[in-house]
Amino acid sequence: MVVFKVTRVQTTPFDGQKPGTSGLRKKVKVFKQPHYLENFVQSTFNALTAEKVRGATLVVSGDGRYFSKDAVQIIVKMSAANGVRRVWVGQNALLSTPAVSAVIRERVGVDGSKATGAFILTASHNPGGPNEDFGIKYNMENGGPAPEGITNKIYENTTTIKEYLTADLPNVDISAIGVTNFSGPEGQFDVEVFDSANDYVKLMKSIFDFESIRKLLTSPKFTFCYDALHGVAGAYAARIFVEELGAKESSLLNCVPKEDFGGGHPDPNLTYAKELVARMGLGKSRSEGEPPEFGAAADGDADRNMILGKRFFVTPSDSVAIIAANAVDSVPYFSTGLKGVARSMPTSAALDVVAKHLNLKFFEVPTGWKFFGNLMDAGLCSICGEESFGTGSDHIREKDGIWAVLAWLSILAYKNKDNLNGGKLVTVEDIVRKHWATYGRHYYTRFDYENVDANAAKNLMAHLVKLQSSLAEVNDIVKKARSDVSKVVHGDEFEYKDPVDGSISSHQGIRYLFEDGSRLIFRLSGTGSEGATIRLYIEQYEKDPAKTGRDSQEALAPLVEVALKLSKMQEFTGRCAPTVIT
Ligand code: G6P
Ligand code: ZN
């Protein structure tokens, strides 16, 4: 057994190591500065209680982006030096964010050990490579991101740090499964490299009926396509969709994880998942030939998802509503009923209507997955989702891209259980249109104005807040812009009181609510890296089944006009069009 020594290394603080709930994200070049990652990791150890470090079991892995393998070796050595008992590493440093959450919650080591936390190495949907982004975040014992109390403490520690601890261990081979034992001043230290998919696959099998999904995926009537955008989802897709569920290998696109995501932007939306979008018969450069019946994509760390039907896009807001409406029938995990459902404030109210119909507890929380975690820990929420391509459930404490795909496949399998040998296939589009006919449709679009001057964005938001003090003035502007738009009946800045811990989150976005259920929401992004990003969310509710089939941009055009007039978008930002429309 290799015996190691612990060294104390002198260091000085770096500016700007404040982690958000999605961790610390910076360019690789920043992370590669000597002591930069070490300072952050030591500051995290120092922010945790002693029993979460000394003698503890930690998970370290991520989406496989450039610099991950170096980072794993650094963190392993520092863990040993800080008295951690064992580190679990996914083979080749790969674990999706949802898989890390599952491993923390579910995995039991050979000696009965359980993990109490994880360093997740990811910058989510941001591009990777030597000139792109790297990221690190810490997740707690419940499998969810560290709460603000801890992230604030980590940040404080980074501003005063003077030294960190490291051990003179040799690099561990993380390409081969197995355990390596070391011996240090405080006793034994182990590094266990394990299969990245096993625990996650086991959890998915306990939630979904794999046999019924297999019947669907192997039916000649059904065609399928999954795009991992060269992110870590590839490590799970081959195993789950092909090996376990019988999909053809040719149905996997970009499913080999790459350190630079093949040079692409690993974000599953209509703009960045170009190849999938073309294959599904959508977009300007759509492929010739018959598209598959079902398509889906994931982001770099596989927590986001996009769901597509043949020549058909399912908005994330509709997706969570449809999953909630069908879960009890289609997914064994939910067969005894849903504890409640939740969505983020800017996500459309499609889920609200389902909750009302099914008499379910319902929560509207600010943007950010952490708010759902609290509800789930308290047993108040089973299914939740966000407009930003995040969907998930209380099986873990992160959103889960592959779970969302399995949920959709379960619904399709259930609706087609008698059709696979004869009869017409019920398609994704059929399911969505039927849902609209039953519950009404929430036409929905999001306009992003990226890299706007930060002051201009602040002024625009201040203008909108001030305007809310006079609804008469607001309605004057609305009527002058479009006489066919209904009246604004309420305006506010969204504030949330957490029903579990009573904490209050204010200034979570500006809302204009209309008499007919339409909503205009303005928010500043919390994840942009340059300048400010203004997000404008536009939503209109249509109950009449005869009118739910329109093109959404066309249906929303009057509200868009009103939104631009109310906010004086062009005056404040100089922009006559958004950067991205989703
Ligand atoms: C991350 C979080 C999501 C959140 C999103 C919002 O992806 O994990 O929970 O919805 O950021 O981003 P924004 O840029 O709109 O603040
Ligand atoms: Zn992500």
From TrEMBL:
Recorded family membership: Belongs to the phosphohexose mutase family.
Cofactor section: Mg(2+)
GO biological process: glucose metabolic process
GO molecular function list: magnesium ion binding; phosphoglucomutase activity
Function: Catalyzes the reversible isomerization of alpha-D-glucose 1-phosphate to alpha-D-glucose 6-phosphate. The mechanism proceeds via the intermediate compound alpha-D-glucose 1,6-bisphosphate. This enzyme participates in both the breakdown and synthesis of glucose.
Domain Alpha-D-phosphohexomutase alpha/beta/alpha: 17-164, 199-308, 317-418
Cellular component annotations (GO), alphabetically ordered: cytosol
Coiled-coil region: none
Subunit record text: Monomer.
Broad EC category: isomerase
Name assigned to this protein: phosphoglucomutase (alpha-D-glucose-1,6-bisphosphate-dependent)
Keyword Magnesium listed: yes
Keyword terms: Carbohydrate metabolism, Glucose metabolism, Isomerase, Magnesium, Metal-binding, Phosphoprotein
